[in-house]
Amino acid sequence: MKQDLIVILDLGSTQNTVIAREIRDLGVYSEIHPHDITAEELKAFDNVRGIILNGGENRIVDGKPVEIREEIYELGLPMLSIDYPQSKCEEQFNELPGEKALKKFIFEMCGAEANWTMKNFIEDQVELIRQQVGDKKVLLALSGGVDSSVVAAMLIKAIGQQLVCVHVNHGLMRKNESESVVKVFRDELHANLIYVDASERFLGKLENVADPEQKRKIIGGEFIRVFEEEARKLEGIDFLGQGTIYPDIIESGTKTAKMVKSHHNVGGLPEDLKFELVEPLKQLFKDEVRACGVELGLPHDMVYRQPFPGPGLGVRCLGAITRDRLEAVRESDAILREEFAKAGLDKKVWQYFTVVPDFKSVGMKNNARVFEYMVIIRAINTIDAMTASVEKVDWDVLETITNRILSEVENVNRVCYDMSPKPPATIEFE
Ligand code: XMP
User: Fold this and answer.
1) Quick one: which of 151, 127, 141 has its CA closest to 303?
2) For residue 347, how many other CB atoms are within 10 A of its CB?
3) Domains, the chain
C-alpha cells in the first residue's frame, strides 16, 4: 500500500461515512471495516496508522451491544472513540470531533501522512488486482456509464488483454452512445471488447408492452440473458469485474447498518456461472470515481456525464415502445444535449432529457392538418435525486431547441417544457 490508512470500525453509526470523507478530505486515506475484524486482518493491511470507533444509538444488534474484539486493543495502534462506553482508547469524545481534534489525532497521534492521492490509489489497486487475478481472465459488463467505464480503464491498466469487456446495446441507448464505447475502449484503449447489438431482440420483447414496471423487468431480465449467453461462449473466465462503489455497499446494509435497498448488480446470473468478484472502486465515493477516471485518462464527457437510467430511453418513450417514437426521443435528446453544451448548461444542470408520450396532437404542416407526437423537455437540479427542482432555462435557449426539434425530428409537431418539481412529480416520467 502506498498510503497511510485510518480504519473506522463499523459499530452501526450512520456517521461513519461522514468521518471517512472528512479524513480523506484532509488527505489521508480512510476505510470503514466491520466491527468484528480480527487483529490478523488489520495487520495484513500493513499501513494502518490508527483506529476510530464510532458508537452511537445503532450499536445494538439482536438486543446486544456490538463490541470489537479485545485483541484489537493489543495492536498498539492509536485509537479514538466517539460515544462508545468503557472504551480503552487514548482519545475519547462524546460527539463527532471537530476538524482540529481530528487533525491532532490523525497527524500527531497516528503520525499519518497526507498521501491519499488518486495516483497512489490507482497504483495500489493495480497491484491488488494483479495479485487477485494472477494470469486468469476477468469478464466485465461495460455499459458505458461512469462506474463500469472507470472499472474497465482500471482493469485494462492492471491486466490488459486478460480483461474481456462485453458491451450490450439494448437498442435504448442515446444517439452514438454505443459507438463511443467502442471507439474509446476498443480503438483507443485497445481493450478486448465484445460488442453485442441486441437491439432487435430487446425491441421485439418490448413490443406492445405498455406497463412501466413490466418494461423495466423485460429490459433487466433480457440484459442478464444476453450477458449470460456471451459469458457461456467464453472459456476460462474466473472473475467478474464490477463497478460497485461505496454508496452501493452502504445502501445494501452492513453487519450493523440497516439495509436501504438491495444491491443487485450481479443479480440473476445462474449458479453455475458464479464468478469471484473484482471490485476496485468499492471504497470510492462518486466524485472520487470520477477523479479516478480522469487520472486513468478517460474522456471528460464519459466521466462527468449526467445520470442515465439503466433501462435507457425505454422509460422516456412512454407506454408501448414504437420505433418512430423511440427515434424521436433519441434525436430530440441529442439536440437538447448539443444545445445545452453550447449554452454551458451541461456543466450546471444535474439531469436533462426529452420524453415522447404515446399520443398525438393536431398541428399544421405545409398547409395541411397533421396528427403528430409531442416532445417534452425536462431539466432538473437535485443533490440526491430524492427531491428535485426545475432549471429556469433561458427562453432563447428553449426557443432554439424547440425550433431545431420541430425542423429536424420526424413525426413531431409540438414541444413542451416540464415545470414540475419532485415531488409531486418524479424525475423520469415512468
Ligand atoms: P425518479 O424518476 O425516481 O428518478 O425521480 C430518480 C433518479 O433515478 C434514475 N432512474 C433510474 N436509474 N434504473 C436506473 O438505473 C431505473 O430504472 C431508473 N429509474 C429512474 C433517474 O434517471 C433519476 O436520476
Assistant:
1) 151
2) 8
3) 5-109 (3.40.50.880), 118-303 (3.40.50.620), 322-417 (3.30.300.10)
Rounded CA separation 6/48 (Å): 6
- Which amino acid residue places its CA nearest to atom 18 of ligand 1? 309
Whole-number Å distance, alpha carbon 429 to ligand 1 midpoint, is 10
* Confidence at residue 104, expressed as pLDDT on a 0 to 100 scale: 96
pLDDT (0 to 100) of residue 66? 84
- CA count, 13 A, side-chain hemisphere, 70: 0
pLDDT in tens, 80-124: 998 887 667 778 888 888 899 999 999 999 999 999 999 999 999
**Statement: residue 184 has pLDDT above 80:** yes
Model pLDDT, residue 62:
73
4 three-class SS: coil
Rounded distance from Cα 11 to ligand 1 centre (Å): 31
Closest Cα to atom 7, ligand 1: which residue? 385
The set of cell numbers assigned to 288 is 472520487
pTM, full prediction? 0.89
Nearest residue by C-alpha to atom 14 in ligand 1: 309
